[in-house]
């Protein structure tokens, strides 16, 4: 029986060209049709590793980590100043799936600044916001708004400490009027104090205290009032 030998057909030349064109591992500079430019590492034709992207239409530049074609890891995003054309940092921090995620600092055109945690491109977690009017908020955030527990310090050093919801004072809180030497402690809803107690606080050190101190208020039967309130609360829970 004759032995038949099968010879493998030669590989098409374009297969070899594809292998040579596949951007893998090493640094490459690639220009898009719209003028965008990327210089950095690749994996399977995707931006992966360290690299720098330039968007021609806006002049924006991202330098940092990439994963499977998206910004992922640590990196900075910069844009040119419309007047001086000098580059300024807009965000420096951590990214995931092409969005701000983790700890980072953002710098806004009006001079405001936020440093803290992010999730899906929004301020979420713990963070500190420096506002244009010199107010500073420090505390918890959710979906770009103060939410949870936090403190807002005004430019005159007055401050609020307590609960927040959707960017507004909400829940139990204390407002310190240090310029007058007073403090309000109570319950807030949508930025409005609903009930509470106003008392003197650091009156002797205040720069502009009221003419007369606030008289003390005392309940005739504080234990009875507390018990009644507790009973009402228990009934509502049941």
Automatic annotation (TrEMBL):
Name of a matching Pfam family: MORN
Keyword Repeat listed: yes
Major localization listed first in the record, in broad terms: cytoplasm
Domain of life, per lineage: Eukaryota
Key words of the record: Cytoplasmic vesicle, Repeat
Keyword Manganese: no
GO cellular component terms, A-Z: acrosomal vesicle
Subcellular location: Cytoplasmic vesicle, Secretory vesicle, Acrosome
Membrane spanning residue stretches: none
Alphabetized PANTHER family for the sequence: MORN REPEAT-CONTAINING PROTEIN 3
Role description: Assembles a suppression complex (suppresome) by tethering SIRT1 and MDM2 to regulate composite modifications of p53/TP53. Confers both deacetylation-mediated functional inactivation, by SIRT1, and ubiquitination-dependent degradation, by MDM2, of p53/TP53, promoting a proliferative and cell survival behaviors. May play a role in the regulation of spermatogenesis.
The protein, known as: MORN repeat-containing protein 3
């Amino acid at each position: 029986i004759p032995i038949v030998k099968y010879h493998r057909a030669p590989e098409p030349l374009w297969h070899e060209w594809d292998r040579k064109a596949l951007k893998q591992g090493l640094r490459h500079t690639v220009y898009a049709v719209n003028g965008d430019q990327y210089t950095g590492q690749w994996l399977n034709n995707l931006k992966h590793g360290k690299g720098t992207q330039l968007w021609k239409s806006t002049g924006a530049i991202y330098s940092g980590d990439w994963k499977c074609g998206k910004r992922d890891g640590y990196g900075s995003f910069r844009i040119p100043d419309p007047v001086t054309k000098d580059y300024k940092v807009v965000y420096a921090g951590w990214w995931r799936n092409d969005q701000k995620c983790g700890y980072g600092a953002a710098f806004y055109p009006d001079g405001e600044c936020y440093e803290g945690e992010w999730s899906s491109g929004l301020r979420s977690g713990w963070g500190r916001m420096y506002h244009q009017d010199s107010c500073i908020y420090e505390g918890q955030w959710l979906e770009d708004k103060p939410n949870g527990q936090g403190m807002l310090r005004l430019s005159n050093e007055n401050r609020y400490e307590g609960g927040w919801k959707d960017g507004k004072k909400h829940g139990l809180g204390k407002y310190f009027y240090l310029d007058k030497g007073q403090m309000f402690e109570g319950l807030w809803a949508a930025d409005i104090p609903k009930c509470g107690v106003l008392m003197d606080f650091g009156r002797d050190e205040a720069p502009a205290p009221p003419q007369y101190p606030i008289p003390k208020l005392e309940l005739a039967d504080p234990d009875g009032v507390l018990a009644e309130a507790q009973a009402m609360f228990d009934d509502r829970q049941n």
